[in-house]
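Suppose a colleague, Dr. K., hands you the sequence of a protein chain of 171 amino acids and asks what its three-dimensional shape might be. Before reaching for any lab equipment, you can write down a predicted structure in token form. Begin with the sequence itself:
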Amino acid sequence: MIPARVYARKLPTGGRVELLLLRREDELTWEVLVGGKRMTTGRRLQLEDGPQAEVLAALDGSRRLVRFSEAIDAYLARAGNVPLPPYIHAPLADPERYQTVYARVPGSAAAPTAGLHFTPELIAKLEQKGVLFTRLTLHVGLDTFAPVTEKARRIIRSTRNGASSTQRPPT
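The predicted structure, expressed as tokens, is then:
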């Protein structure tokens, strides 16, 4: 999970907007979810204590394609916020506590709440009992809330087939 929620000001008006980075398109360009009005193509933004950005295209709904004036990985590490579900109201003292123990590749734009109950100890106990694990990378984003597509069905079938191969044969 990355600290994918950032705040910016519209240029030149100064109106505050929220950006939730969903998917990196290239080093400077991201698909984002915007919270703010009049976020039209060509709108320039100034990230709070960070680089500038420009809306390149309006996508579906509140999604926009945004290009930053520089790579923002260091900015996210310094100033980004962990996107939390609406039922968590307190700020996180330690964002790492909201990361699964088995996460390996940064990129998820939303907190992976379904796996937070796993600990290294629980995984070790399950493995000792013969439970086998299939590893996959799942970057949670806006698509989590979208209808399942045929592409998603193919991925699910492939994952299910991989998981089936981890089952022990009947004894």
